[in-house]
Automatic annotation (TrEMBL), chain A:
One of its GO terms (cellular component) is nucleus. It is found in: Cytoplasm; Nucleus. One of its GO terms (biological process) is tRNA wobble uridine modification. InterPro entries: Elp5 (IPR019519), P-loop_NTPase (IPR027417). PANTHER family: ELONGATOR COMPLEX PROTEIN 5. Its main location: cytoplasm. It comes from Odocoileus virginianus (White-tailed deer). Belongs to the ELP5 family. GO terms for molecular function: tRNA binding. The lineage of its organism: Eukaryota, Metazoa, Chordata, Craniata, Vertebrata. Pathway: tRNA modification; 5-methoxycarbonylmethyl-2-thiouridine-tRNA biosynthesis. Residues 215-234 are annotated as: Disordered. The gene is ELP5. This is Elongator complex protein 5. Keywords: Cytoplasm, Nucleus, tRNA processing. Pfam families: Elong_Iki1 (PF10483).
UniProtKB/TrEMBL annotation, chain B:
This is Elongator complex protein 4. Keywords: Cytoplasm, Nucleus, tRNA processing. It is found in: Cytoplasm; Nucleus. Pfam families: PAXNEB. Belongs to the ELP4 family. It comes from the Eukaryota.
């Protein structure tokens, strides 16, 4: 699962909530890309550096380049120590640093950035970050820059969530049932239809991923909020159902205005089978049965 | 189509009128007024520009949108000087196709192009345009599809056989190759066509300054820059008639992609009440003013599904001339609906302009769906290929009888609904709810309808 998430490149959005946290998945992805030998930059805003590095072994920790915004977000301390210019400058600096070779940028978290920056500016910066390649669409996926963003979806309204979803190439929504976490993944490949996938997983203490089988759905008692449905056809004075024989007869019925083959044949044939129509006339006593044409004396 | 026939003869006849007027030995009728000498200076009332034709209804100059089926729905084409707004579908798969068709039509007709985007480089957009199809290959495509459809439709059209006589929405290849071409999406446009065309690109990340300034002006800086760019091009290239040396008039086709998205710097998709909520509407207003005074047509795709404030969508619709909405079935419950199984989405014509006219040019078929085949994008009316379900009619009849009998919510009996599709059941249930209170009150109590 991790390979497929990292394969597409671009912005990978991890949407988590209070019940199903996403930082462990983010760390698993960071570990995976560090093991692949890529440059990994982490912009830490919500947790301290020690807490983020906890659980990684030394080889991975040496590959992580950590940019700390947690300790001094407003740059109150001496300007030399913390990142100057605030979060926006930090992002733009990342843009310049990752211009060579494949890289992964982990943003922990996008929610913090959304609260400190206006949404359109953040979207524009993320777009600039994730389209690092000089010839888009032609470069191999390994050369692209991947941006992993952790977003706490309960903190934002539908506006920013929708805006960031439309930017993301891959969107992972974390949920789960009964203690088992699941990821609903939406892949938006550039010129293809989006594809969905749901994967049940669990993260081990060393931040490697283990796929799980979907837990069996327990049969919940179906609470029917509506009143039991009334079958209106039970007490009717007419019959609405068709028996099988009636259905067959109905299907084989020729409709009156349908110009079917039989009618066509019947019209074309001169009428050998049918008798021509006769008029049977019984004259009354008062009828004038003059065989002569009454119009003969007219000078027409 | 009558329109296609008259378009060819119409332009030919005006040409011949002009020819007859200039050669004054053919007819004894003298033309009053200053005799025009030569081909320039507007002696012909109808401007004869390549790729345009006058509308048969009101003489308005029209350009093709690149999709002849869409042209037919819009009353012949897109009027010069107007804006076509495409409301994007949710995953933005089909609206770029319409955008590309418009631009490709411009290249094939020899119009000038202006492509503006905040997401993609305009040079890359132009590289991905579809290749034009010559008439013969389109006929082959059409025939293949017709054969596959004929066998299906013969079986179904038993009761509603009169619907077979309804004309299909698609027009065949237009006889005159000057208006409306067909394109093959699976192939790219040949490079030499792009090189011979005149195009201008506006890519926002290059134009905008890197420093973040909270400007107090009412228009977002991205929009302001785009408007200035468009105005410059119109003035310099003489599309508004300001450059009188230019003899050959041409149309400028403007394409703006993803207008209103956060990448343009507009937060209308992010918040419901924002300080700069009027910048998009002001942009459209100024753009329309620019278009009306020049020989240009504009297509804009906008992600209206992301806009949080619904009042803004209504304002945007009013400020645009023609509005077409795309709704794709991906991810929605309509994907599994058997009614829509052949199609990929619905097209809603939300607005058609009344230009110099008192009435609208609305087509008769209201339910339109589109389908993306391997090479073509087609638009069809749904009702023309579906029979009227006899069970549906039966259901409507018994609902009318049964409503006063049961005051509870009417649930359709399960065994009657084996041929009725699920969504039409829901539609009927909703219409039953609408009928319910009315019928209940007029019936008044548990009176049974006796026959």
């Amino acid at each position: 699962m991790l390979e497929s998430l990292l394969a597409l490149g671009g912005l990978v959005l991890l949407r988590d909530s209070v019940e199903w946290e996403g930082r462990s998945l983010l760390k698993a992805l960071v570990k995976k890309s560090a093991l692949c030998g890529e440059q990994v930059h982490v912009l830490g805003c919500e947790v301290s550096e020690e807490e983020f590095r906890e659980g990684f072994d030394s080889s991975i920790n040496s590959r992580l380049v950590y940019h700390d915004l947690f300790r001094d977000p407003l740059s109150w301390s001496k300007p030399g120590k913390a990142l100057p210019g605030g979060p926006l400058e930090a992002l733009r600096a990342l843009d310049k640093k990752t211009s060579s070779g494949p890289a992964t940028i982990a943003l922990d978290s996008l929610s913090w950035l959304l609260h400190h920056l206006p949404c359109p500016t953040l979207c524009q910066t993320l777009h600039a970050l994730s389209r690092q390649d000089s010839c888009p669409g032609d470069s191999p996926p390994g050369e692209q820059v991947r941006v992993l963003g952790l977003l706490h979806e309960e903190l934002h309204g539908p506006g920013p969530l929708g805006a960031l979803s439309s930017l993301a190439q891959t969107e992972v929504t974390l949920s789960g049932t009964m203690g088992q976490a699941s990821a609903h993944i939406l892949y938006r490949r550039p010129r293809q239809h989006p594809t969905h996938q749901t994967q049940w997983f669990s993260i081990l203490p060393d931040f490697s991923l283990e796929l799980q089988v979907e837990p069996p759905l327990e049969s919940q008692p179906r609470s029917d909020p509506h009143t039991p449905s009334v079958d209106p056809t039970t007490h009717l004075t007419f019959n609405l159902h068709l028996s099988k024989k009636e259905r067959e007869v109905k299907d084989s019925l020729t409709l009156p205005f349908q110009f079917s083959l039989e009618k066509q044949q019947a019209l074309l044939r001169p009428g050998l089978s049918q008798a021509t129509s006769h008029i049977f006339y019984e004259p009354d006593a008062y009828d004038d049965l003059d065989q002569e044409d009454p119009d003969d004396d007219l000078d027409v | 189509m009558a329109a296609a026939g008259t378009c060819g003869t119409g332009t030919r006849s005006t040409g011949s009128v002009v020819a007859a007027a200039s050669t004054n030995n053919v007819t004894s009728f003298q033309r009053r007024g200053p005799r025009a000498s030569g081909a320039d200076s507007g002696c012909s009332r109808l401007v004869s520009i390549a790729g345009t034709r006058p509308s048969v209804r009101n003489g308005q100059l029209l350009v093709s949108t690149g999709l002849p089926a869409l042209d037919q729905l819009l009353g012949g084409g897109l009027a010069v000087g107007t804006v076509l707004l495409i409301e994007e579908d949710k995953y933005n798969i089909y609206s770029p196709l319409l955008f590309k068709y418009f631009l490709a039509e411009g290249i094939v007709s020899g119009h000038a192009l202006l492509v503006a985007s905040a997401k993609e480089d305009p040079a890359d957009i132009l590289q991905k345009l579809p290749a034009p199809l010559i008439d013969d290959s389109y006929k082959k495509e059409c025939d293949e599809d017709v054969c596959s459809h004929k066998t299906e439709s013969d079986i179904k059209m038993k009761i509603a056989w009169r619907y077979q006589l309804l004309p299909k929405m698609e027009a065949g290849p237009v006889s005159s190759s000057r208006f409306g071409h067909y394109y093959d999406i699976s192939k790219r446009i040949p490079q030499e066509l792009i090189e011979t065309s005149k195009w201008h690109g506006f890519f926002l990340p290059e134009k905008i300054s890197s420093t973040f300034n909270a400007e107090p002006c009412s228009l977002t800086s991205g929009y302001m820059k785009l408007l200035q760019f468009i105005q410059n091009i119109i003035y310099e290239e003489g599309f508004d008639g300001s450059n009188p040396q230019k003899k050959q008039k041409n149309i400028l086709r403007i394409g703006i992609q993803n207008l209103g998205s956060p990448l343009w710097g507009d937060d209308i998709c992010c918040t419901e009440n924002s300080d700069t909520s009027h910048s998009l509407t002001k942009f459209l207003y100024i753009l329309r003013g620019l278009l009306r005074s020049s020989l240009s047509a504009c297509i804009i795709t906008m992600p209206t599904h992301l806009i949080q404030n619904k009042a803004v969508i209504a304002r945007v619709t009013n400020l645009s001339d023609t509005v077409v909405g795309l709704e794709s079935f991906i991810g929605s419950e309509k994907e599994t609906n058997p009614l829509y199984k052949d199609y990929h989405g619905l097209i809603h014509i939300r607005q058609i302009p009344r230009l110099n006219n008192l009435i609208y040019d609305i087509s008769d078929v209201k339910d339109l769906a589109f389908k993306l085949k391997k090479k073509l994008f087609t638009i069809e009316g749904i009702l023309s290929t579906q029979e009227l379900n006899p069970h549906l009619l039966q259901l409507l009849y018994c609902k009318w009888i049964l409503l006063p009998l049961s005051h509870q919510r009417l649930h359709l009996p399960p065994d009657l609904s084996d041929t009725v599709s699920r969504s039409s059941k829901q539609d009927l249930a909703e219409s039953a709810k609408l009928l319910g209170p009315g019928c209940g009150m007029t019936a008044g109590g548990k009176k049974h309808l006796d026959f």
